[in-house]
Amino acid sequence: MARKVFVLNGPNLNALGKREPGMYGGKSLSDIEKDCRKLGNELGFEIDFRQTNHEGVLVDWLHEADDAAIGVVTNPGAYSHTSIALHDAIRAISIPVIEVHISNIHARETFRHTSMISSVVAGAILGFGPNGYNLALRALSDICNN
Ligand code: CA2
Known about the structure:
Layout: E1 3-9, H1 21-24, H2 29-43, E2 45-51, H3 55-68, E3 71-75, H4 84-92, E4 97-101, E5 123-126, H5 131-145
Parallel strand pairs: 1-2, 1-3, 3-4, 4-5
Helix pairs in contact: 2-5, 3-4
The structure holds ligand CA2.
Ligand CA2 binds at residues 12-13, 15-16, 19-20, 24, 75, 77-78, 80, 101-103, 105, 112.
């Protein structure tokens, strides 16, 4: 039976592909979802792919994932830089969480240099464009098979 992986996306990622292709690449979030489903299938994962603009919804989904999934890939968007609630939610669950950023947040404005969740995730992948999601799924597969 396929193992479920939640891919959780935060605010404004629904706008991907419409603006700032130089920063985030030309793919829409639904293109990224298709890529995740394709690779997920190869890795034996059932992908539950979601996006919300609301911080508390991300917290609820992380708690839900703890019972329903073997791991989480998350790009919490700008909440990565601000949210103690997300930090606490990741600490509160026992499955591995991989943080993804499409852009290299350290090469951007200083307010993006801090991630509130990096200290509590299994690992972080940033700066590789939309392919970061695939890299995160591969990392999760390695973690879960070892
Ligand atoms: O690089 C990333 O993946 C980010 O998480 C993307 C967030 C940003 O706030 C983080 O600092 C880094 C932004 C999500 C998408 O925002 C858009 C803005 C304009 C046009 C399209 C998307």
